[in-house]
Automatic annotation (TrEMBL):
Residues 508-529 are annotated as: Disordered. It comes from Agrocybe pediades. It holds the Pfam family Abhydrolase_3. One of its GO terms (molecular function) is hydrolase activity. The chain crosses the membrane at residues 31-51. This is Alpha/beta hydrolase fold-3 domain-containing protein. The keyword Transmembrane applies. Residues 174-293 form the Alpha/beta hydrolase fold-3 domain. The keyword Cell membrane does not apply. It comes from the Eukaryota. Gene3D superfamilies: alpha/beta hydrolase.
């Protein structure tokens, strides 16, 4: 008997088909058992931590609801990897019933124009129309747009103008929801939709396009970038066709933050469209390689095991990440060529911009392993014991090539995953950015690496560390998390966003905090036909 109200009612996806608990009736039985035993633990947790002095709690500031929320979520998440359970997903090819939408309106966005299909965005994956939910349901009075989309890439590029100095220019967000590329959706009922809802409710942004991109069960990478790029081109067209002014901010939480970084890199590398004005990264996932066993990153432990709901389960997560990157499950051992391609893609700047391999490639410090202790242990105790096939494809020295101004660039210049080598810095020319991260979450070290690398590369950066917060706290409501901490996050975001409206820098006059100029298309830019 299925339990559709608890998890998505769908048949086993191909990448889960070999898992015995992914099929009914075992799937429902396992989910019920896991849920029942977890619920039974709730009074145990409450009693235990109510008696225990606060200093012995996972974080002394946490109340009992926060402890129950993190422990409950961490234990329940295991059903995803054992039984292939997904939550809150939708079919991206089917439009919702407009009459059921209370806060948003739904629109189909045409596929990315052909002239923009270069770099990692190519014909390896079918281009499709993309659904998006637009907040608020009724357009803001300041927003006057032309509702005509054109497939003429040259026309789009030549008419766009996103720059303005007045405070009445609308701030438009493009939101990529989180969920590990296998959960959630852009629908207004999704848990992650609390983020665009608050951005509109608090009047931080005028309008938000929430992208219903294809999850890994529907299409592999780079489908997510293709779908996000299509919506970005659409928004630029809507505001640019008659020289309407706007500021565009890319927003992403968790895996959505990973997608934002990938889209921003593609926009920079290919140069078909102007760069966005800002990036809002909420607990961004920026090292996909950590989920693949026998990689250097997978042997660098993540902190905060007991203060976050994220878990490290290498084999099940590896299955999801291999599927996401387009490498199907097979009981047979992969070929050397397949493993080589997998390592090449997962250690690219587009997929794992803050993996140790990529950071070393570009000469950045590793906050995950500042003393090189874990890498030395990996090489000495793990790498040397790997089969020859894995040693060939996972050697850190072989992977850390094709950085800026290296002779290896000539060998990989046709490889779109290393095209960023045309730029002298890993995050060179990236737009103004704010990063929000809980200081109690498991991604804290790789997010520190991201912040350090961005700052080193000259990005106008602001970082807000949410006090004692777990992963992606803005996805939680105020019943389950500290309202004061959540409001502190929103205040930081609101203050950062005001910098796009003010004539003077939003913080101070120092170079590190000065307002960045709006990036323009290169004067000699020609759109590929």
């Amino acid at each position: 008997m299925a339990i559709p109200k608890i998890y998505d009612d769908n048949p086993p996806y191909p990448h889960y088909d070999h898992l015995p608990y992914a099929k009914e009736p075992w799937k429902s039985a396992y989910v019920f058992w896991r849920l029942f035993t977890t619920l039974a633990l709730v009074p145990v947790w409450v009693t235990y931590y109510a008696v225990l002095p606060r200093r012995y709690r996972p974080r002394a500031s946490w109340n009992l609801r926060q402890i129950v929320n993190v422990n409950f979520t961490r234990r329940i998440f295991k059903v995803t990897e054992v039984a292939g359970v997904t939550w809150g997903t939708r079919d991206p090819t089917v439009a919702p019933d407009q009459s059921t939408l209370k806060e948003t309106r739904f629109e189909w966005v045409p596929p990315l124009p052909e002239g923009f299909r270069t770099g990692i965005v190519n014909d390896s994956i079918p281009f499709t129309k993309v659904g998006c939910y637009i907040w608020p349901k009724k357009p803001h009075d300041d927003i006057q747009k032309v509702k005509t989309m054109t497939q003429d890439a040259q026309h789009l590029t030549s008419n766009v103008d996103l720059e303005s100095g007045t405070d009445k220019v609308p701030l438009v967000g493009i939101f990529m929801h989180g969920g590990g590329y296998c959960h959630m959706s852009a629908h207004e009922s999704s848990r992650t939709s609390r983020i665009p809802r608050q951005l509109i409710k608090r009047k931080i942004l005028h309008e938000v396009y929430s992208v219903e991109y294809r999850l890994l069960q529907h299409a592999p990478f780079p489908a997510v970038v293709m779908d996000a790029a299509a919506v970005y081109a659409y928004v630029v067209e809507q505001y640019g066709i008659e020289h309407k002014k706007c500021k565009v901010i890319l927003i992403g939480d968790s895996s959505g933050g990973n997608l934002v970084l990938s889209l921003a890199r593609w926009l920079r590398d290919e140069g078909h469209l102007p760069l966005p004005d800002g990036l809002l990264l909420l607990s961004p996932s920026c090292d996909t390689s950590h989920s693949l066993p026998e990689t250097l990153s997978s042997y660098i432990p993540r902190p905060n095991q007991f203060t976050d709901y994220l878990v490290d389960t290498p084999e099940p997560r590896a299955l999801l990440q291999r599927t996401f990157l387009g490498f199907k499950y097979s009981p047979e051992k992969p070929s050397v060529e397949e493993e080589r391609r997998l390592m090449e893609v997962v250690h690219s700047e587009y997929v794992s911009p803050c993996s140790p391999i990529v950071l070393k490639r570009w000469g950045h410090d590793l906050k995950q392993d500042p003393e090189g202790e874990h890498e030395a242990k990996f090489v000495r105790h793990i790498f040397q014991r790997l089969p020859t096939l894995l040693r060939t494809t996972r050697d850190p020295q072989n992977l850390a090539v094709a950085g800026p101004n290296t002779t290896e660039f000539a060998l990989v210049s046709d490889n779109p995953y290393h095209k960023s080598c045309r730029f002298p810095k890993l995050f060179g020319d990236f737009p103004r950015t704010i990063i929000v991260c809980g200081d109690a979450e498991r991604l804290v070290r790789e997010v520190r690496s991201l912040a350090t690398a961005m700052e080193t590369d000259g990005v106008d950066l602001q970082v807000h560390w949410a006090r004692d917060a777990c992963h992606d706290p803005l996805m939680l409501n105020e019943f389950w998390w500290d309202k004061t901490v959540l409001n502190e996050i929103w205040d930081a975001i609101s203050s950062w966003a005001k910098g796009f409206k003010d004539e003077v820098p939003y913080a101070d006059e120092s170079p590190a905090n000065s307002k960045s100029s709006v990036p323009q298309l290169p004067p000699t830019h020609q759109v590929m036909s």
